[in-house]
Design brief:
With 79 residues, the chain is an alpha+beta fold. It contains two helices and two strands, in the order αββα. The longest helix is centred in the first third of the chain and has 13 residues.
Length: 79
């Protein structure tokens, strides 16, 4: 990860209020569970969402991380 990518990531974490995100308790038969975890020197937080909406902060944060990988996912396959 470059320093530019890191700074963008930190900006997204802060703007989405990741550390206060609550776990979404809904599940389904077709979809996916997205799980995000974060660690700071004195803090740990985990949260998840079932097939997050593309307009949600959760999706925005997870999508940014997916784009840093070598995975070749079509937009319609991100659910």
């Amino acid at each position: 990860m470059t320093s530019l990518e890191w700074n963008k990531f930190v900006s997204i974490v802060n703007s989405t209020n990741f550390w206060e995100m609550k776990r979404k308790a809904s599940f389904g038969e077709d979809g996916s569970e997205w799980i995000l975890e974060g660690v700071e020197p004195t803090n740990y937080h985990a949260t998840s969402a079932w097939s997050p909406s593309e307009k949600s902060d959760f999706y925005r944060l997870g999508d940014f991380l997916l784009k840093l990988t070598d995975l070749k996912l079509k937009e319609e396959d991100k659910y």
